[in-house]
Amino acid sequence: MSNERIVFEPADLAGCATWQLISPEVFVLCLGAFIAVFVYWSRRPKLNEPPLVPYKYPLIGHTLEYLRDSEGLLKRCHEQYGDMFSLYLFREVYTIASNDLAYEMFRSTNFSFKEGLERMFPLGDIIGSKAYPGNAAVLLKDRFYKHVDDCYSRIYRELQHNIDQLIGDCEEPKLINNFDEISMTIIARAMANLFVGEELCKDDEIVKVFATFATTLIRVRKLSSIAYLIHPRLQTEYIKLVFKYGDNSPQKHKDLLTKKLKPIFEKRYQDMQQFGNEWKRPDDLIQLLLEYSIDMFGKIHYDCIACRMLTLIWASIHTTSANLLNTLNDYAGRSEYWNDLRKEQEVITDGLDFDLTMDRMEKLDSFVKESNRLMGHILMLPHCATCPSFTFSNGYQVPKGRLVLMNNLTYMSNSSLHGDNPETFSGFRHVSKSPFARVGRDSMAFGLGKHACPGRWLASRNIKMAMSILIRKYEISTLDGKRPKYPIKRGISVLGPLPLTFKKRK
Description:
Blueprint: H1 10-21, H2 24-43, H3 63-81, E1 84-89, E2 92-97, H4 99-107, E3 111-112, H5 113-120, H6 123-127, H7 136-143, H8 152-167, E4 174-176, H9 179-196, H10 204-223, H11 225-230, H12 232-245, H13 250-275, H14 285-297, H15 302-332, H16 338-349, H17 354-357, H18 362-373, E5 379-385, E6 389-391, E7 397-399, E8 403-407, H19 408-412, H20 415-418, H21 456-473, E9 474-478, E10 488-489, E11 492-493, E12 500-504
Parallel strand pairs: 2-8
Antiparallel strand pairs: 1-2, 3-5, 4-12, 5-8, 6-7, 9-12, 10-11
Helix pairs in contact: 8-9, 8-21, 9-10, 9-15, 10-13, 10-15, 13-15, 14-15, 15-18, 15-21
Binding site for heme: 453
Transmembrane segments: 21-41
GO molecular function, one term: oxidoreductase activity, acting on paired donors, with incorporation or reduction of molecular oxygen
């Protein structure tokens, strides 16, 4: 037996001291937490989830392929896996639904379009609207859009004035290289009239908020693409940081809206209390938001009102102006439709009040619907599962919190819904069928069921009114007489800028 003495080095003693710092109670607590998590995950019911398409690179998944060729990826996966499969994109699993399975998602009460949008782009975190109860879209649907028919004449006059001012007479051909800015301003001013009333819609600062807020969000979102590749949450934090210190921060917009609206609100609130039912109620959005604030908080809550305004600006103006731009590009590049659309305008509007003719413009409505149908987006309308698990008719299940998106490629190419050659533009395909704003299996651009966009009739009417004015007033064409295919980035069709020539019609 050796008589050597065991000598502890200082490093060994330090290690022992470190272990001694962890008390038995802490160790047991950590071990218990680990066991609890393990048991929870092991006992979770095994769902029959849609197949996750194999990918090469951990953490990255299908992201790079989706960014390079989203159309090719979706077509290949649909051919191999059918109407439902899952992709690992941007550090998250997304389930892709096509045809009838997408229809089931739209019709179910176990999915939330609002939560899906918030997951894809957390506007509520950025502008602070999540702090307040209620849903701006539902508020409009229940209490505003029912009375908006009375405002269409006012909107039409505003559109006509804006088009005359921004495009001009065009006695000589006028080349406009970037019509998307004009489209945004045209719609922004018209919506400002509807939202804040005729008192404020001419205010340059208010119009600037309406015209620039959505485009600023889009621009900052594009600049944050690298952060999104790492994780969607990192993109959110980046956008919040940019807006916190930038010139176009939501807080600055909210402060401006409050400054402009406060005197009007105070006067209206005083009149409401003084005259009661005898007071003539203004037909604009700010009156609705005033009443909503009083009902919810018992006072005029300016920050809540401003948050609702910014949410609606984002939801309505950007999408409506983008659809107007897309429709105008299709019209300018498809000369075979000019005569029929012009003739319809001349016959229907001759000597009649414009409000009485809008619903009779079947060819224009069909053209707008077809243009929107073939805009080119790959994945659309994200919905978040809100129940513990949801089972589709094909037996596949998705867990709570899973984002499910509609495969727009299969929708666009479905001949049973759209007739022969569904991938080919046919401007009058929908004549004598359901109008653009009516949702159904053959018209899911605005969603479906309880998830359908509540402002679709207003958006549709704005686009058609603006197109009617443009068709009757100008000869419009692309430089080469063709409508080029839009590039696809991150599964989204990028509109313009497409140079357009305007000339006054004789």
